[in-house]
Amino acid sequence: MNARTDPTLLTPISNRHLDALEEEAIFILREVAAAFERPTLLFSGGKDSLVLLKCAEKAFGAGRIPYPLLMIDTGHNFPEVTAFRDFRAKELGAKLIVRSVEDSMRRGTVRLARPDESRNAHQSVTLLEAIEEFRFDALIGGARRDEEKARAKERIFSHRDSFGQWQPKAQRPELWTLFNTRLAPGEHFRVFPISNWTELDVWQYIAREDIALPSLYYAHQRPVVERRGLLVPVTELTPPRPGEEVVTRTVRFRTVGDITCTCPVASDAADADDVVAETLTVDVSERGATRMDDKTSDASMEKRKKDGYF
Fold first, then answer.
1. Which residues contact 112 (CB under 8 A, 6 or more apart)?
2. Count of CB atoms within 10 A of residue 3's CB?
3. What is the CA radius of gyration of the chain?
4. What is the pLDDT of residues 101-133, one digit of tens each?
5. Where are the alpha helices (DSSP H) in 93-192?
6. pTM higher than 0.85, yes or no?
7. Where is the Phosphoadenosine phosphosulphate reductase domain (predicted)?
């Protein structure tokens, strides 16, 4: 008998570890509520933001989360995810604010180089416009340090200047869990309560807390094409290219974002316990394994974050 066939063998260690991570996240969520006047929680309906929302529910109680939820919609999101986003916000009695990249395009603040260009990076513009509209002084996000190198440089309380930009060499120290939340006019913070979690921690927590997720996170049949080592989903936005063969594969999504840049992975994992077991064997980060736009050097995450990205 092993931990895979008998989950109780993992319980004593896993729960202590997850308890500590949960307690830290709850502490940070309460710190934000105490230190800032107009915070918001970035909520996409993805697994990390759903874990964050669960921690917020534990911190304050259903119907009592003291800040609104904010979603920046590219207009190219998976409908299963946006539907789940709306359902979960309503279930918790939380205020949900949605701002769209398409609105920024109509205003002329976002201009695409070509019609089929990914809108993912352009979310920065819409996000900064929403910050100005609502005068948010803290934005709580579900980013984790293990996602990729630029996120690993972040502090938990990550300062942004009056232009919404991130200066990685000017981050403030966070010794002994003491956070410097001083702000000048026009500045704000991005706050990452699950920064110290890993993808495995997230899935263990989802399994332990029985957190419902959009169905895309689990194994399902989907037409795909193989492109540059990735399984590209075949949709109206991502049609096959000449010479590519469309095949139906059993896949799941490790992360869900803009349809035009998010790929699934081959998987038979049907529930959270299956995903935990599968995650123990992977050696490539979820972004590295599933994001088309992260494969190009001119679209580096560090540059995007300096420009105001999540």
1. 105, 119, 122
2. 15
3. 19
4. 999 999 999 999 887 788 888 999 999 999 999
5. 101-107, 123-134, 149-152
6. yes
7. 39-263
